[in-house]
Amino acid sequence: MATFFGALVLLVLGYVFYSKFVERVFIINDSTPTPAYTKRDNLDYVPMSWWKGNLIQLLNIAGLGPIYGAVAGALYGPAAFIWIVAGTIFAGGVHDYFSGMMSLRHQGEQYPSLVGRYLGQTVKTIISVVSLVLMVLVAAAFTAGPAQLIAQLTPLSFTVSLLIIFAYFLLATILPINRVIGKIYPLLGGILLFMALAIGISLLFSGKSIPNLTLENLHPGELPIWPLLMVTISCGAISGFHCTQSPIVACTMKKESDGRKIFYGAMVTEGVIALIWAAAGMTFFNGTAGLGEALAAGGPSGVVNEISTSLLGTLGGILAILGVIILPITTGDTALRSSRMILTEIFAKFFNMESKIKILLVTVLVAVPALFLATIDYTFLWRYVGWTNQVVATVMLWTGTVYLLKNSRFHWICGVPALFMTGVVCTYIFYAPEGLGMDYRLSMIIGFSLAAAVLAWYISQIFKYRQLRVNSKDFRAA
């Protein structure tokens, strides 16, 4: 139990101290007008208070991610606590802060445009496709589950439930952000936080002992911690989906100093939620073997429902149903909203995109494939969400690294986690069944070799920008 409390304290200290350091490295300026005012269109660019932005960001990036992912990651034992804490403070928080603040600095630019600005047009083209595929997969994966549960609890069929959810998606995606998202999401974000805190407090008084730290891999299936844990627990540590969502809130910020509370703060809150659910998963079922059996029998939804109803009674059952139905839907609609904003930004170079009909048509472009994919196996979708998600996160960290290099700032805060995640995704793609399914040792060799090549590129960039600064000083002196 000491490990659990220690992890909570470290997350809080990470926000109090490290987020301020990250903010100082970025260098904020509250006298600079934000795009919420300079580009106000009463659709995406609308000023909102920081606390609304924080809760909207939390719901956008979280949903059921820090619950389902943490429960699955708990199979590895207390080693999951290390990844949640270190990932949140040094990778996820930095990733979310830079994706939001860089969007703010560039007048609400979407993630692919930021990538193109700092890593080049070729990378932008690739990442535009990957990020759009990721969001379509997320929208599909986070819609199928709620539709199935609605069909079980009501007279509605699965197909009708799916169509109702996607009708809501279309409305939420094309309506002004302060009409639906700005009014409902802060409340739902509060419910998500309350649910996690209620589970955490009940767990402490349940008489069960939360296991303390051990570096031993306790996965009942003997799956390796590296790199699987870092992909299994993404929301709650670092997730590429977040950098597609941060620009949504960046377009509503009143001042730059709100960024730390909104982006880094929401990430730390999500880390706390993941920590609680990871502890609940490995404790409630008396170890990882019991958790593995529960997951095999009822999946993550069944595990969440059993923990909630057992620890919180009727209230837990209500919260579990709300969570499994509402929270994934709120992730799906913002996934489509950000997809619409990315496509609108791309098409705006060729067409006038101010017409609401055109905005609706762009939304349909991503909604239709998401609707189709929602009808196939959820677990199949989720396998591909995992590695595409972390590829997107890795590219965002490298984007932040180059931004800091260009501006002569302490680039290591993005560069070190970027290099770590490069090793993760390179190894995972070669090893995982949904990747190339190669031998583990060979995958490690290839993965680390590719990471070493990227490190060499990183060092070359350091020298490149250092030389540019020297040349600039010499030119000014002359």
Describe this structure in words.
This is Carbon starvation protein A. By secondary structure, the chain is mostly helical. The chain has one domain (about 1-380): Up-down Bundle (Amino acid/polyamine transporter I), CATH 1.20.1740. Helices cover about 75% and strands about 0% of the residues. It has helices at about 1-25, 35-40, 50-60, 65-75, 80-105, 110-120, 120-155, 160-175, 180-205, 225-230, 240-250, 260-285, 290-345, 355-375, 380-405, 410-430, 440-475. The radius of gyration is 22 Å and the shape is globular. The chain starts with a helix and ends with a helix.
Short descriptors:
transmembrane; 478 residues; mainly alpha; CstA_N; Amino acid/polyamine transporter I; CstA
Question: Concise description?
Answer:
With 478 residues, this protein is mainly alpha-helical. It contains 17 helices and no strands.
Give me the CATH fold name. Amino acid/polyamine transporter I
Return Rg in Å: 22 Å
CATH architecture verdict: Up-down Bundle
Helical residue percent? Answer: over 70%
Total individual domains = 1
Which shape, going by the Cα principal axes?
Answer: globular
Q: Based on DSSP secondary structure assignment, what is the total number of beta strands? A: 0
Distance between the ends: 64 Å
